[in-house]
Design a protein that fits this description.
Elements (H helix, E strand, L loop, with lengths): L3 E4 L1 H17 L1 H20 L6 E3 L2 E5 L5 E8 L4 E9 L11
Helix pairs in contact: 1-2
Length: about 100
């Protein structure tokens, strides 16, 4: 059974700001960014433990064509993936898990 997911407020802000940045520069890039995020979330929800657990209980999946990683934790009891960050690779690495 596939897990459901939610984006915490910080992750939602990260996503919306990134989408807005792509929208200003290219409508096609924005649409493709949305598709890449949806595809990644579907993969994560299908098998959330598949991707690396790099720090404490945080898992991470990088997007292929965009410089972002989806940082998430798993609530197995509720079958829920909690996205804590949509992290841009050029940001400060120390802030990757501190939201």
């Amino acid at each position: 059974m596939a897990f459901k997911y939610i984006l915490l407020e910080g992750a939602q802000i990260d996503y919306e700001e990134s989408l807005q940045w792509y929208t200003v520069r290219s409508g096609t890039a924005a649409v493709n960014f949305i598709k890449a995020m949806e595809a990644a979330m579907n993969l994560i929800c299908a098998n959330p433990k598949r991707w690396r657990n790099k720090y404490k209980n945080y898992h991470e999946l990088g997007l292929r064509k965009y410089p972002f990683s989806i940082i998430y934790i798993i609530d197995a009891e509720k079958e829920l993936v909690i996205v804590t960050s949509v992290y841009h690779h050029r940001r400060t690495p120390k802030k990757r898990y501190n939201k």
